[in-house]
Amino acid sequence: MSFFGLKNLGSKIALTALGFSLIPLLALGITMYSMFASAYHDKVRSNLVTLAENKRQSIDLFLREQVSQLRTIAHTHSIEDLSSPEVLDKILTTIQMGSRTLIDLGLIGEDGRHISYAGPYNLAEINYKNEDWFHRVMVRKIYVSDVFEGFRGFPHLIIAVKVQVKGKAWILRATIDSDIFDSLVRWLQLGDRGDAYLVNRAGELQTRPRFGNKSKEIYKHFLGTPFVGARVSEFGDQKHKIFVEGIWLEQKEWLLVIEDDVQSELRPLFETQAATWALGGGGAALIIIGTLLISRMIVVQQERNEREQARLNEELIQSSKMAALGKLAAGVAHEVNNPLAVIREKAGWMRDLLEEEDVQGSENFKEFEDAVDKIEQHVERAGAVVHRMLGFARRMEPICNDVYLNDVLKHTTVFLDNEIKFRGIELIWHLGTDVPAIQSDASQLQQVFLNLLDNAIDAINRNGIITISTSFDRGSDSVCVSIRDNGPGIDKEVQQRLFDPFFTTKKVGEGTGLGLSISYSIVNKLGGTIRFESEVGHGTEFIIIFPVRHYDRNE
Ligand SMILES: Nc1ncnc2c1ncn2[C@@H]1O[C@H](COP(=O)(O)OP(=O)(O)OP(=O)(O)O)[C@@H](O)[C@H]1O
Ligand SMILES: [Mg+2]
Fold first, then answer.
1. Among 492, 499, 506, which residue has the most ligand 1 atoms within 8 Å of its CB, making it the best to mutate?
2. What is the domain count for the chain?
3. Domain of 432: which CATH number?
4. Within a domain: 430
5. What is the pLDDT of residues 475-494, one digit of tens each?
6. Could you report the per-residue pLDDT of 68-83, keeping only the tens digit for each?
7. Residues 433 and 443: beta-carbon distance below 8 Å
8. Which of 245, 248, 355, 538 is the most exposed place for a label (fewest CB within 10 A)?
9. Is the same domain home to 261 and 402?
């Protein structure tokens, strides 16, 4: 598969794996979260309703208690007693010993004037005949006022009960401490921004809210017809949202308004949301990283497999070429050798004839002599090729001994010393000192090195550098020989055919094209590998690797 094909495969694996893992994760996360959010919302709302109802009950209870306390006083004392300011004062003091909710007490006659008064204000002379509340008590018998300023000049609320004795009516009236009432209402505060207060049907505040004056907008929608139970609504923009609960009191037509900070009420939900995001995000990141790593690993492995497969294929092709050549060489060499011997012999006989005097005098003697020279020369050339082919065909089984590659290389270059010097080539040695002996055939190795050095010299032609290196790789327990030249390098097309038998770029008569194919076959036979790296204009390096522990391919 090509590089792009593999890349595509990697992307497909990654996308599929991500799709199959992230989509369910996302769906699960969103479903779970939205279910949890709506359940939590419902829970918070129902809590708020319960809270509002409890609060309403306690305010109702408070008012009921005050009224019933006043009623008890009215019914347990005679009008004569209540008409005495001293007795009234005593009663007030007794009540205030238990709780200071009531500020004053007053008995008012039918004419609207105070008969007696106990309390801190100077109200004894005041006539309530024209006051609205006075008439209401007369009609309804029990009365709880709105908060009003009245004759005292500051907000307060009063409760009053009508007492009827022998056809005559009186009103027993008390003032409730508005601070105590306010704090009773405000006692229910939720979060940092929570608030609670009472408003009447006209929307006027009846208790002091915790945070200044309130906009009617907050609770306006609760006014109108009273409803049963508590209602919860949300008010404000997304950033400053509050829950507003409204519930009508039973004792008085007042609406209890409770404001709750959404942020603090829903904090656990927001924390869960943050945790869900963090966990979900972390999980997704892990999945993405894991998937990318795995798909990368698969692609790398696939790449490695394909490279190995290609190498094996190449080796197989090369080996089959070698095998075919081996058979061909044996047949051809044998068939060509005999005629060559005959030609050589006949050429010798012709040369003998040419030495005779009468032939020397012939006018074509020079041409005969040249022809015989050429025949001998070409027979020599053909003989050399056949010799090489024969060597290839019946190459002997290697005789393996302990071989030190450094020594073999040194000995091999001795044969080439003159040529190297003559061509102005410099030999550079980088021999590893730790290169161990390998089990191999020294003379066959020498043939390989000779071929490679020959090629390097031919490639450089004049004035260049050949570097011979050896090294030992402990990890793979193998030794490596490198023969590098700074010749012209090999272009891509030639590279593909380099190890092919009879492939040469040299002029006819200068190369058989068998050097590298023979070397390849020898190295293979000795259990090693041979490869090359070459860059046009920079030179060529042949690298041979042998395992230290010898293995024979035929084993
Ligand atoms: N070091 C090298 N630098 C550049 N080209 C090289 C090198 N080694 C080999 N070649 C190329 O590979 C070809 C084949 O080499 P090989 O040794 O098989 O045959 P040859 O050298 O042409 O013939 P012979 O080995 O019989 O003299 C060469 O003709 C040459 O073109
Ligand atoms: Mg060669």
1. 506
2. 2
3. 3.30.565.10
4. yes
5. 999 999 999 999 999 999 99
6. 999 999 889 988 889 9
7. no
8. 355
9. no
